[in-house]
Amino acid sequence: LHITERKQAVHLRWQPIDGAVYYVLRDGVPVLRTEQAEAWDHFASGTHRYVVRAMKDGNYTDSAPLVGVSRVDNAVISALEPVAWIKLSVKGQSRPTHDESSTGQATFRHFYGRTLPVGYTSGFADITSSMTWTLRPEELDSYDKLRALAGQEVVYKDCFGRVRFGVLTAVGGGLTEQVELSLTLTQTDYQERVDY
Q1: Are residues 11 and 4 in contact, defined by beta-carbon separation less than 8 angstroms?
Q2: Which residue from 74, 79, 121, 156 has the highest number of Cβ atoms inside 10 Å of its Cβ?
Protein backbone atom coordinates (compact mmCIF):
# COMPACT_ATOMS: atom_id res chain seq x y z
CA LEU A 1 0.00 0.00 0.00
CA HIS A 2 1.29 3.44 -0.94
CA ILE A 3 -0.35 6.70 0.12
CA THR A 4 0.07 10.13 -1.47
CA GLU A 5 -1.29 13.04 0.54
CA ARG A 6 -3.04 15.84 -1.30
CA LYS A 7 -4.66 19.07 -0.13
CA GLN A 8 -8.23 17.86 -0.45
CA ALA A 9 -7.82 14.07 -0.73
CA VAL A 10 -5.76 10.99 -0.03
CA HIS A 11 -4.60 8.90 -3.00
CA LEU A 12 -4.00 5.20 -2.35
CA ARG A 13 -2.47 2.64 -4.68
CA TRP A 14 -1.38 -0.95 -4.21
CA GLN A 15 -0.17 -4.06 -6.00
CA PRO A 16 -3.07 -5.60 -7.93
CA ILE A 17 -4.40 -9.12 -7.43
CA ASP A 18 -5.92 -10.52 -10.62
CA GLY A 19 -9.73 -10.62 -10.39
CA ALA A 20 -9.94 -9.07 -6.89
CA VAL A 21 -12.34 -6.43 -5.62
CA TYR A 22 -10.83 -3.92 -3.20
CA TYR A 23 -12.29 -2.15 -0.19
CA VAL A 24 -10.54 0.86 1.33
CA LEU A 25 -10.99 0.97 5.09
CA ARG A 26 -10.57 4.35 6.77
CA ASP A 27 -10.18 3.93 10.53
CA GLY A 28 -11.63 0.41 10.22
CA VAL A 29 -14.72 1.43 8.19
CA PRO A 30 -15.03 0.44 4.51
CA VAL A 31 -15.59 3.73 2.66
CA LEU A 32 -14.60 2.89 -0.94
CA ARG A 33 -15.05 -0.09 -3.26
CA THR A 34 -13.08 -0.45 -6.50
CA GLU A 35 -11.82 -3.02 -8.96
CA GLN A 36 -8.79 -0.84 -9.76
CA ALA A 37 -5.48 -0.95 -7.88
CA GLU A 38 -5.92 2.66 -6.72
CA ALA A 39 -8.51 4.93 -5.13
CA TRP A 40 -9.03 8.53 -4.06
CA ASP A 41 -10.53 9.28 -0.66
CA HIS A 42 -11.98 12.71 -1.37
CA PHE A 43 -14.07 12.96 1.80
CA ALA A 44 -11.26 12.46 4.33
CA SER A 45 -10.12 15.38 6.44
CA GLY A 46 -7.28 15.18 8.92
CA THR A 47 -5.25 12.09 9.86
CA HIS A 48 -6.62 8.59 9.27
CA ARG A 49 -5.42 4.98 9.32
CA TYR A 50 -5.94 3.13 6.01
CA VAL A 51 -6.07 -0.56 5.12
CA VAL A 52 -6.92 -2.01 1.71
CA ARG A 53 -8.87 -5.29 1.80
CA ALA A 54 -8.66 -7.42 -1.34
CA MET A 55 -11.49 -9.94 -1.80
CA LYS A 56 -11.53 -12.80 -4.28
CA ASP A 57 -13.51 -16.04 -4.37
CA GLY A 58 -14.87 -15.54 -0.85
CA ASN A 59 -11.40 -14.97 0.66
CA TYR A 60 -9.75 -11.73 1.68
CA THR A 61 -6.39 -10.33 2.59
CA ASP A 62 -5.57 -6.98 4.22
CA SER A 63 -2.68 -4.68 3.46
CA ALA A 64 -0.45 -3.38 6.20
CA PRO A 65 -2.01 -0.24 7.73
CA LEU A 66 -0.69 3.18 6.73
CA VAL A 67 -1.54 6.66 7.93
CA GLY A 68 -2.79 9.23 5.44
CA VAL A 69 -3.39 12.94 5.94
CA SER A 70 -5.73 15.21 4.00
CA ARG A 71 -5.49 18.93 4.72
CA VAL A 72 -7.65 21.80 3.59
CA ASP A 73 -6.20 25.33 3.58
CA ASN A 74 -9.45 27.05 4.56
CA ALA A 75 -12.56 25.30 3.27
CA VAL A 76 -13.86 23.53 0.17
CA ILE A 77 -17.27 22.43 -1.06
CA SER A 78 -18.30 20.06 -3.86
CA ALA A 79 -21.17 18.02 -5.19
CA LEU A 80 -20.89 14.40 -4.04
CA GLU A 81 -20.50 13.23 -7.65
CA PRO A 82 -18.41 14.20 -9.46
CA VAL A 83 -16.07 15.69 -6.86
CA ALA A 84 -14.90 19.12 -8.09
CA TRP A 85 -13.79 21.22 -5.12
CA ILE A 86 -14.66 24.91 -4.98
CA LYS A 87 -12.22 26.72 -2.72
CA LEU A 88 -13.48 29.14 -0.08
CA SER A 89 -10.62 31.20 1.30
CA VAL A 90 -11.38 34.65 2.74
CA LYS A 91 -14.04 36.77 4.39
CA GLY A 92 -13.60 40.45 3.56
CA GLN A 93 -12.14 42.27 6.54
CA SER A 94 -13.04 39.58 9.08
CA ARG A 95 -12.81 35.84 9.57
CA PRO A 96 -15.12 33.44 7.72
CA THR A 97 -17.92 32.11 9.89
CA HIS A 98 -19.45 28.66 10.31
CA ASP A 99 -22.42 28.50 12.64
CA GLU A 100 -24.57 25.46 13.31
CA SER A 101 -28.02 25.15 14.82
CA SER A 102 -30.00 22.05 15.76
CA THR A 103 -33.77 21.88 15.77
CA GLY A 104 -35.60 18.96 17.35
CA GLN A 105 -39.07 17.94 16.25
CA ALA A 106 -41.72 17.95 18.95
CA THR A 107 -45.45 18.33 19.35
CA PHE A 108 -47.19 19.82 22.36
CA ARG A 109 -50.55 18.99 23.82
CA HIS A 110 -52.47 20.91 26.43
CA PHE A 111 -54.53 19.06 29.02
CA TYR A 112 -57.36 20.36 31.14
CA GLY A 113 -56.14 21.47 34.53
CA ARG A 114 -52.53 21.93 33.46
CA THR A 115 -51.07 25.31 32.68
CA LEU A 116 -48.17 24.10 30.56
CA PRO A 117 -48.33 21.62 27.66
CA VAL A 118 -46.89 18.12 27.60
CA GLY A 119 -44.18 17.67 24.98
CA TYR A 120 -43.78 14.64 22.75
CA THR A 121 -40.54 14.28 20.84
CA SER A 122 -40.00 12.24 17.70
CA GLY A 123 -36.25 11.86 18.08
CA PHE A 124 -35.72 13.52 14.69
CA ALA A 125 -33.51 16.57 14.33
CA ASP A 126 -32.49 19.08 11.68
CA ILE A 127 -28.96 20.46 11.77
CA THR A 128 -28.27 23.54 9.69
CA SER A 129 -24.84 25.00 8.94
CA SER A 130 -24.61 28.68 7.97
CA MET A 131 -21.33 29.90 6.51
CA THR A 132 -20.07 33.25 5.25
CA TRP A 133 -17.14 33.82 2.91
CA THR A 134 -15.94 36.40 0.40
CA LEU A 135 -15.23 35.62 -3.23
CA ARG A 136 -12.56 37.96 -4.59
CA PRO A 137 -12.84 39.38 -8.12
CA GLU A 138 -10.64 36.60 -9.54
CA GLU A 139 -12.95 34.00 -7.91
CA LEU A 140 -16.29 35.31 -9.20
CA ASP A 141 -16.79 32.29 -11.49
CA SER A 142 -17.08 30.25 -8.28
CA TYR A 143 -20.31 32.08 -7.45
CA ASP A 144 -22.06 30.61 -10.51
CA LYS A 145 -20.65 27.16 -9.66
CA LEU A 146 -21.98 27.47 -6.10
CA ARG A 147 -25.41 28.61 -7.29
CA ALA A 148 -25.53 25.55 -9.57
CA LEU A 149 -25.07 23.38 -6.44
CA ALA A 150 -28.18 24.83 -4.74
CA GLY A 151 -30.62 22.02 -4.02
CA GLN A 152 -27.97 19.32 -4.45
CA GLU A 153 -26.33 17.06 -1.91
CA VAL A 154 -22.80 18.34 -1.24
CA VAL A 155 -19.80 17.78 1.00
CA TYR A 156 -18.09 20.64 2.88
CA LYS A 157 -14.64 20.33 4.50
CA ASP A 158 -12.66 22.91 6.45
CA CYS A 159 -9.21 23.37 7.95
CA PHE A 160 -10.46 22.33 11.41
CA GLY A 161 -11.21 18.81 10.20
CA ARG A 162 -14.97 19.28 10.00
CA VAL A 163 -16.73 17.36 7.23
CA ARG A 164 -20.42 18.03 6.64
CA PHE A 165 -22.71 16.24 4.20
CA GLY A 166 -26.03 17.80 3.30
CA VAL A 167 -28.19 19.64 0.84
CA LEU A 168 -27.04 23.14 -0.06
CA THR A 169 -30.37 24.86 0.57
CA ALA A 170 -29.34 28.47 0.01
CA VAL A 171 -26.59 30.40 -1.78
CA GLY A 172 -26.68 34.16 -1.39
CA GLY A 173 -24.33 37.00 -2.01
CA GLY A 174 -23.95 40.75 -1.98
CA LEU A 175 -22.73 41.51 -5.47
CA THR A 176 -20.10 44.25 -5.82
CA GLU A 177 -16.59 43.91 -7.23
CA GLN A 178 -16.50 40.86 -4.95
CA VAL A 179 -19.22 38.60 -3.55
CA GLU A 180 -20.04 38.56 0.15
CA LEU A 181 -21.16 34.96 0.13
CA SER A 182 -23.56 33.17 2.46
CA LEU A 183 -24.22 29.43 2.29
CA THR A 184 -26.82 27.36 4.12
CA LEU A 185 -26.41 23.60 4.34
CA THR A 186 -29.01 21.27 5.86
CA GLN A 187 -27.15 18.18 6.98
CA THR A 188 -28.30 14.75 5.79
CA ASP A 189 -27.62 11.25 7.02
CA TYR A 190 -25.19 10.50 4.20
CA GLN A 191 -23.38 7.22 4.88
CA GLU A 192 -19.85 6.82 3.59
CA ARG A 193 -19.75 3.17 4.62
CA VAL A 194 -19.96 0.71 1.71
CA ASP A 195 -21.21 -2.85 2.03
CA TYR A 196 -19.07 -5.89 1.32
Answers
A1: yes
A2: 156
CB 183 within 8 A of CB 77: yes
Measured CA to CA in angstroms, residue 79 lies from 60, 85, 161, 178, 187 at distances of 33, 8, 18, 23, 14
Handedness of CA 6, 68, 81, 55 (dihedral sign): positive
Rounded Cα–Cα distance for residues 73 and 159 (Å): 6
Other Cβ atoms less than 10 A from the Cβ of 77: the count is 24
Q: Are 41 and 24 in contact (CB under 8 A)?
A: yes
* Rounded Cα gap, residues 152 and 86, in angstroms: 14
